[in-house]
Amino acid sequence: KEAPPGGPSSSSAGMASSPCGNGNFDSGLEIKTRSVEQTLIPLVSQITTLINHKDKPKKSERTLAAIHRVGQAVSVAVGRFVAVGEAIATENQELKDEMGQACFEARRAGDAIAQLTDVASALPSQADGRVTVFSDRTGMVKAARLLLSSVTKVLVLADRIVIKQIITSRNKVLVTLDHLERVSTFQEFVQIFSQFGNEMVEFAHLTGDRQNDLKDEKKKARMAAARAVLEKCTMMLLTASKTCLRHPDCESARINKDGVFHRMRCALEQVIDIVTEARSCGENQLLPASIYNGIKDFKSSVECLRENLYSSSPQSMGSQLEALVERTEDFTDSAYTSHEQRQAILSVCQLARQDTQQLMNAWIEAQSVHAKEATEDMEVAILKTCQSIGDLRREVHKVAVGRATDLLKVHGEQLPLRALKTAGAEGNLEAVAEYSRKLTEQKEQLVETCRLLCHVSGTEPLEITCVHAEETFHVIGPQIISAAQTLALHPSSKIAKENLEVFCEAWESQLCDMALLLREINDVFEGRRGDKRPYLSLPRPGVSRCVSFWLCLQEQTSMAKLGLELRLLSSDLDTEVEKWEAQEHDIVRQSQSLASMAYNMYLFTRGEGLLKTTLDLFHQAEVCASVSASFSSSPPSILFSLLFY
Questions:
Q1: Which Pfam families does its entry note (predicted)?
Q2: Rounded alpha-carbon distances, angstroms, from residue 477 to 109, 196, 406, 417, 441
């Protein structure tokens, strides 16, 4: 076995902390996923054990045997690891050279460690007869560093395969999406959408795993937002496309459909930007400057004066405060902010100005006498300034959260949505226009409230979620209106009615998400951190705990896929039934009922739909089973035709 060449020595602590601490190696590789990090931890632990024993080269036989086992275990593990890496290289020619070199270096380093810990190669001491190992300290350190670096490189290269899978899956979805946009018949649409549903489920799994694996919380939040858009838009795409096919000359239907396709493409592009970091994970789209971050930075500058009076100037602190106060204009200039709330915010801002001015005066005086540390007057001013800034944070938090809470209570009744549905079904275009204006006003209130919540969210991931909520309300509002206009133009169309219902459900779902977001913001403000909410067809916390307990992840996955298929089948069945004259046919009515019940059960696992309790779910399952049993006497050919439709 070839021993590695010598090199500069390194401390064991530094080498052990590097892989899982800052994530950087001699090779310049950065660990960005938890799976790579967790894979390295056992290896780092074993190598640390070996390196730490370097300080006492004379070992007892028992200790020597343990070190020998560790060294051999490292070598064997590296051998198995390299075999997998080489297999990956064979299947992915574009990585063959890089992966082959990394595997070669890992195998060489593993062999070197095995040789250095081999009892047969150790020499007995002339003094006491004990065996002395690790005579080549530099060689062991060099081999360990090479092993960690090469193994990390193999893992990072393997991670490229995961990224490649996501990109490939996205490309398939885009191609099918283009086909869906150009279809001209229902039959063609049904066939392509079935393929699209399968591809979306695959893409959801890949991106869901990636989201959970990311170390960067901001990237995880952006991924969650993009995946939420894709999940909700999938159902909108189904009904909007079918509406366009049924009413090809309807302009509002075309606008409605185009909006969904555009939003899905943007979300798909955002996912790829995150996983490939093509745009530094969207960092070029900077988050709006929030009051919370401004307060945090200003308070940090104030408290730093205790340690260094000369790190900045009093003028810069005054400018920093004014920039912070300027951000409060989103609150004070809002037409929805009450006079009392506006005055309270302005009063706190004025108090902060006064306290900061006193601090600046004491600071200038301390600098004039060349003080080395904060004077007593400065210390008092620092405490008062921090207190007034804390009061400002509490005041804007109270206004933002109070506004959001009130809006959720009012909008929970869904009066404009109900009125739009009724007016559309009656073909009343004037009423649709009137209630569209009310919904637009509601949308503007929600958009502004999301902007205020972003100011007080407390963390960057929650800021990203606030921005996502703002964008969602901004987009879905006009889409609901276009769907209502289409229904008003075609009041007898079941597809147009279903389409409006789907968009209204998306609005209601976003209101539910906003309530969860509000709870998380309160948790951060009060020093608590609740569980993060899941996306993509997983049961929501507290909504369906019994179902979450009984359904394993695989069953939820299957239900997500079947849910799309059920919605497609039931929707197309309704479409086909519209052509039938004998709608009272028992099989038709029973199949419609069965599809509706099955889809309601699917929605329950997501915390949505008509079923509200576990008891409701069980009762629905019993009814569904009895309806299914009645099909046993139906002609198989008829059942097959219904399933096909």
A1: Vinculin (PF01044)
A2: 60, 26, 19, 10, 10
